[in-house]
Design goal:
Blueprint: H1 2-35, H2 39-88, E1 96-100, E2 104-109, E3 121-124, E4 129-136, E5 142-145, E6 156-162, E7 165-174, E8 180-182
Antiparallel strand pairs: 1-2, 1-5, 2-3, 4-6, 6-7, 7-8
Amino acid sequence: MVSLFKKRLVVLETNLKETNKSLCVYNMFKRKSLMGFSLIEMMIVIGIISIVSVIAVFSFSNMNKDQALDKDSLLILSVLGDARSLAMSSKYFSDYGVHFNNDSAVLFKGDSFNQNDSSNSLYYINHLVSISNISLAGGSSNVIFKKVSGETDNSGTIIISLSDDASVNKIITIFPTGSSEKN
């Protein structure tokens, strides 16, 4: 009986010591939380936030450039498609074409481009993007679609690239049938 009592006493003493240790740890954290953050902890947090912010800004900047390139290559395809559709429908019994500049495309009526024609439709491309190379049959910067058939004698390629990095580009191919596609 005495031995059982001693064992229980030892267990109670052990439990009491563990409870005191827990209270000491609790009090240490409680004191620490009352003191606030140290300057070093604040500097580390500010540094981490700064690094994450810089990475996010550069990622969004590159994403914006890529989106501008995709959007403007689709715009050029759309203008080419519109000109071909107008020629195939023989609207106003006329051919239709597209004239290319470095920063724009102009949809025009007729078999030659007239800069002063009021019926021209001008489409500007984003300042982050430029038409860097126009390589069409006949050496022109115009693609003219024939009425009814929609075919063209000005097949070739148009390269649209980022203004600050010409190696990032989209190539639009115009086929003799008048259809076009981008890579």
